[in-house]
Write a structure and sequence with these properties.
disordered N terminus; 47% strand; globular; Maltoporin, Chain A; mainly beta
């Protein structure tokens, strides 16, 4: 007894020999390039020496991610900078332009960030979080600070990894997100379907997130439970940063990065405090549309290397109304989330952390939670039924916060679960009137890696593993699938030549897959990637390009369609993909202009249905993007445009055949602007999203009406935020969402093209008031 709509079936099977050949060729080429570099370039940073530059020189570095800014600083000063990876994540630098000494330039670059720089007597500049005790500063006789060794170590940002979206802590604070749509609303290439958080799915360039390597605090996610529910439900109030690799992802992003990677990172105590001490905050929000009231409470502290953080958030409210004023049944808010972290950093710099993050959504929802209703519903099924979705994520992490030379290790061990419980209503007379059904996924995963610091960049090498399980607890037909994987990987991020940044690497994986009847399938494969940036005109025009071939093994099926009678015939083949990205980016005096073209080809993508364990699909996503912007001291304006077409087996995709694979997107335009009136503590901003009509859809099956085009929509949001000078611990904010009461469904929302489906509408005009108090 399964709860789904099956519309299209078809197969195009067969692994391509050329993909394996390309993977081997890329890994061999990358290794040859690495070992052909001058031996001196590959020596540990600690073993190298450089002549100090202490006099004034001209710098011109726009505001950007910290790792990218320090790369530019290194190029313009001729020096090297040492920066721990965790320090740069989600941090934006201050723009500098003019004549400075290197010390002055570095201090100005870091102004307003939560990091500090220190200079050793030996002349090494190290950038660390503020909570880390500064090292002794050395100087030369003329009073200038000695800066000799600088190695920029971010997370690949600005170091050759292309097509990367970084949403920083400041971005999240500005957006004040209440769900994943708010997190990504300024990124047209990342669409989030549904207006209910518990059924929101993320699509990157039109590819569903289960085909990406998704992590939370470094923990791999295995959340493919029910196609009517969210894949990765997360409370954005817990987040401090999000990064997305669109298409081409590095080998150290983890296994399964068929169409890229998404990394979510939650808050740490050291992000909220400058040094030893304790603090906390209370955040309250009220949304007029549905009368939704939410409150978050946090306490945190640092003391002699010990760290702790606790955060609790809840949200409750009634159904919201769409732009017509119609109540959307099954849209009540009842969300509970929490985050707990404890960590200790030894005097040696070794740091251990244990975190647990949890979220629960329990409320009556539409019977199929990603749509209001469908003509295909069985007459005895209610319109609304109870759902409960629980996701938990526990992570142990070890890092060295003061890495040197060739020793910069990281260890991650994690366990995560996602459970969905709802009710089944069998045909009358065939059994009980109703019974409870539960789908559960779990993952135990981890990695050990070391980052080798060299004079021209870093090389990260490691091993990782996962043991995933998908299980359906059903009264009549319980089922279980399992998959284990062990992988080894290496990823180099280098600046081997002037104005050139390269990222290349590969991984080898061995997977063991077990079907619902105990069938076993063992497979192994290679993946490889190479991408780079070259400054055609230094500090003005940069060319970017990237390619990856990814082997991902056999994906687990969704829990709620599992069938213990599956025969897995024909034999399942591992899913593979090829990703391409080429672009140009220009910057000048605060102005930015960039464009790119991209393509993802997935082969043997698993399309599982209750009647058939494995049908192979070929999935394609292709398109282009253009972005422009201007930043000034207290504000910015940005416009972004994407045009994405998605295909399944050579035909335009629809949102049902694309379940767990892809969705139609088309053209999306976003405009975002904000300005802070610093003298008054006042910030105003807003954004607009425009989605033109989209009609590149397949022909409907024989006997059914043609699919409807996706309707155009335009939605406008605005906000004002006030931080009073007399009470700097208070933040008052007012948002107006969907100002003009647009009646629409987000482009990635399920079922808009089907005449038999009533899709979920987005909320109509909503007034949101927020108050945050920090102590």
């Amino acid at each position: 007894m399964r709860l789904h709509i099956d519309r299209m079936n078809g197969a195009r099977a067969g692994a391509r020999v050329r993909n394996v050949f390309f993977a081997k060729l890329m890994v061999s080429t990358a290794a040859a390039l690495l070992f052909s570099l001058p031996q001196a370039a590959l020596q540990p940073v600690a073993a190298q020496e450089k002549t100090a530059r202490t006099g004034a020189m001209v710098f011109d570095i726009p505001a950007q991610s910290l790792a990218s800014a320090l790369n530019a600083f290194g190029r313009q000063s001729g020096l090297q900078v040492s920066l721990a990876a965790a320090t740069s994540r989600g941090v934006t630098s201050t723009a500098i332009k003019g004549s400075y000494t290197p010390e002055q330039a570095l201090a100005a670059l870091l102004r307003g960030t939560d990091v500090r720089h220190s200079i050793t007597p030996e002349g090494t500049a190290i950038v660390t979080p503020k909570h880390v005790s500064p090292l002794v500063t050395g100087s030369v006789e003329d009073g200038s600070t000695t800066l000799q060794q600088v190695t920029v170590e971010g997370d690949g940002v600005g170091q050759g990894d292309v097509a990367e979206v970084n949403i920083t802590a400041k971005d999240l604070e500005r957006k004040n997100p209440s769900n994943l749509q708010d997190v990504f609303r300024e990124e047209p290439s990342v669409k989030v379907g549904s207006s209910l958080p518990m059924s929101q799915k993320v699509y990157v360039n039109g590819i569903e997130e289960n085909n990406l390597a998704v992590t939370i605090d470094g923990s791999r996610q295995n959340n493919k439970v029910f196609h009517h529910n969210a894949t990765t439900l997360i409370d954005p109030a817990l987040l401090k940063a999000v990064s997305v690799d669109e298409g081409v992802a590095p080998a150290d992003a983890g296994p399964g990065a068929l169409a890229g990677a998404i990394a979510y990172e939650t808050k740490d105590a050291r992000d909220l405090l400058d040094g030893d001490g304790f603090g906390g905050f209370v955040n309250s929000t009220y949304n007029s549309n549905g009368g939704v009231f939410g409150t978050g409470v946090s306490a945190y502290g640092l003391h002699q290397g010990f760290e702790y953080l606790g955060y609790f958030n809840f949200s409750k409210g009634s159904e919201f109304s769409d732009g017509n004023g119609d109540k959307m049944p099954g849209t009540r808010s009842n969300l509970l989330s929490g985050l707990g972290k404890v960590a200790y950093e030894f005097e040696s710099g070794d740091r251990i952390e244990l975190s647990h993050e949890s979220i629960k959504d329990a409320a009556p929802r539409p019977f199929r939670a990603n749509m209001l209703n469908t003509d295909g519903a069985k007459p005895w099924e209610p319109i609304i039924r109870d759902y409960q979705l629980d996701r938990n994520n526990t992570v142990f992490t070890y890092t060295d916060e003061t890495p040197e030379g060739w020793w910069d290790p990281k260890v991650v061990l994690a366990y995560g679960t996602t459970d969905v419980v709802t009710t089944v209503y069998p045909r009358p007379g065939t059994g009980p009137v109703s019974y409870e059904i539960e789908g559960a996924t779990s993952t135990f995963n981890g990695k050990f890696e070391n980052r080798f610091h060299t004079g021209i960049g870093t090389v990260t090498a490691g091993v990782d593993f996962y043991s995933d399980r998908a299980e359906l607890d059903d009264l009549y037909e319980p089922g279980t699938e399992k998959a284990q994987n062990v992988g080894a990987y290496v990823q180099a991020r280098l600046e081997p030549f002037d104005r050139t940044r390269l990222s290349f690497g590969g991984r080898a994986d061995q997977q063991w897959f077990t079907g619902t009847g105990g069938q076993e399938f063992d497979n192994a494969g290679l993946s490889g990637n190479i991408s780079g940036e070259y400054d055609l005109i230094e500090d003005f025009l940069t060319a970017k390009a990237g390619y990856s071939h990814v082997w991902s093994g056999i994906p687990l099926a969704e829990n709620f369609i599992m069938n213990p009678a599956w025969t897995y015939d024909p034999k399942p083949e591992p899913t593979t993909s090829n990703n391409y990205n080429v672009g140009l980016a220009a910057t000048y005096n605060g102005f930015t202009l960039e464009g790119s073209i991209f393509r993802t080809d997935m082969e043997n993508a698993r399309y599982a249905r209750y009647a058939n364990a494995y049908t192979a699909r070929e999935v394609e996503s292709e398109g282009y993007s253009i972005a422009a912007g201007y930043e000034w001291t207290d504000g910015f304006v940005r416009v972004k445009y994407v045009d994405i077409d998605t295909l399944i087996d050579g035909q335009p995709a629809d949102s049902d055949t694309g379940t767990y694979l892809t969705t139609p997107v088309g053209r999306i335009i976003t405009l975002t602007a904000a300005h802070t009136f610093a003298d008054y503590g006042l910030t105003v901003g807003g954004d607009i999203e425009f989605a033109p009509k989209y009609d590149k859809l397949p022909k409907a099956p024989a006997g059914e009406p043609n699919y409807k085009p996706y309707e155009a929509y335009k939605v406008v949001n605005a906000y004002v935020e006030y931080k009073p000078e007399s009470h700097k611990n208070l933040t008052l904010r007012a948002d107006v969402k969907n100002i003009f009461n647009e009646v629409y469904s987000d482009r990635a929302t399920y079922g808009q093209e089907f005449g038999v489906v009533d899709p979920l509408h987005q909320p109509g005009r909503s007034f949101i008031v927020s108050l945050r108090a920090t102590f």
